[in-house]
Amino acid sequence: MSGTTIMLTDELQDYFHQVSLRETAILKELREETYANTNSPGMQIAPEQGQFMQMLVKLIGAKRVIEVGVFTGYSSLSVALAMPEDGEILACDVNPDTTAVARRYWEKAGVAHKIRLQIGPATETLQQLLEGKLIDGNQAGSFDIAFIDADKSNYATYVDLCYQLVRQGGLLIVDNVLWHGAVIDPARQDEDTIAIRTLNSALQRDERFDLSLVPIGDGMTLLRKR
Question: What is the 3-state secondary structure (H, E, C) of the chain?
């Protein structure tokens, strides 16, 4: 028995994918197009993260999801495929070009009717949900899951707003919390790294949530709203 998390070599990562990954053809096609045709393919989640999120959606029976940060749509497509026909995702992003790729794949996969794309600063969109300006009535406590994978300097704000929007027992999922190892590098003092480092420390003490940091992809923190 080991008291620490195993390090994944390239060979062990390959084995991990061989025995566990069930990536559908449409997801693989989107992932490969993103890597071939975008300037920042690393912004896309890993396929095992998408599959993990699908499991979480099914485990808690999620029907309403907020996504903060869409990019080319791999995470929203993964989640939409796992949700029931009457499920809905409110997907927030500021980039109409990368989300045009997402829209194309949502349509191709037959899940576009489950996804509402909101272009604009997510802080404003989330606040509008709480004020009843985007959807009739205050949407506090009405979502099952919020996935946060956008500008790191606003992570703490996204967590606070999504805490209000997610129901008791619902989940917040925060991506990139290990930041490719930069969180433990004292030489890294850029704004994004400091923001993630600060949030990680704050969440460890945050009594609003049950917490588990899962070392999958670039690190995902799961927060269950108490």
Answer: CCCCCCCCCHHHHHHHHHHHCCCCHHHHHHHHHHHHHCCCHHHCCCHHHHHHHHHHHHHHCCCEEEEECCCCCHHHHHHHHHCCCCCEEEEEECCHHHHHHHHHHHHHHCCHHHEEEEECCHHHHHHHHHHCCCCCCCCCCCEEEEEECCCHHHHHHHHHHHHHHEEEEEEEEEECCCHHHHHHCCCCCCHHHHHHHHHHHHHHCCCCEEEEEECCCCCEEEEEEC
